[in-house]
Amino acid sequence: MKDNGQGPPNGPDARPALEALEAAAKKSFWGYLGFELVTAEAGKAVIALQVRPEHLNMAGIVHGGVLASMLDNAMGLVAILACPGDGTVTTGLNVHYLHPSSEGRLTCEAALIHRSRRTLTLEGRIADNKGELLAWGSGTFRRVTGL
């Protein structure tokens, strides 16, 4: 998305831009894992994942790497929307695993909590379809021009 000086897409005209972003993401690791965009607006986003057998570890619960990737992707989406025209990269990711899950639909809510000239700090929460908090994480992202 190009920087039009107005920040991330919002309002009734935002959906096409977000759908284009999601379509591009489907060709990446995002699509391989099966993430779906639920909502996105300035400073926050929600993504979802329908748990499939390949998301499980040998103990039969969702693999911690899948949960970490979900947090990273949701927070990364918020960072991308906060920095139109620039690239963003993850520079730090902290994950706290709180409760196991093995089936159903997971949702991850991510929010921007601090921004400086070059760095963004975000937090994310993953819950199952019963509302149980499965994981909480924080991440730092750096703006990178020229990506």
Summarize the structure.
The protein has about 150 residues and is α+β, with helices and mostly antiparallel strands.
Question: Could you walk me through the main structural features you see in this protein, from its secondary elements to its overall organization?
Answer:
There is one protein chain. The longest helix has 19 residues, at 64-82. Helix content is 24%, strand content 38%. The protein has a single domain (14-144), classed as Hotdog Thioesterase (Thiol Ester Dehydrase, Chain A). A six-stranded antiparallel β-sheet has the order 1-2-4-5-6-3. The two termini are 12 Å apart. The chain has helices at 14-25, 29-33, 64-82, and strands spanning 36-41, 44-50, 87-97, 105-115, 119-127, 133-144. It comes from Paenibacillus artemisiicola. This is PaaI family thioesterase. Keywords: Hydrolase.
Characteristics:
147 residues, alpha+beta, Thiol Ester Dehydrase, Chain A, six-stranded antiparallel sheet, 6 strands, disordered N terminus
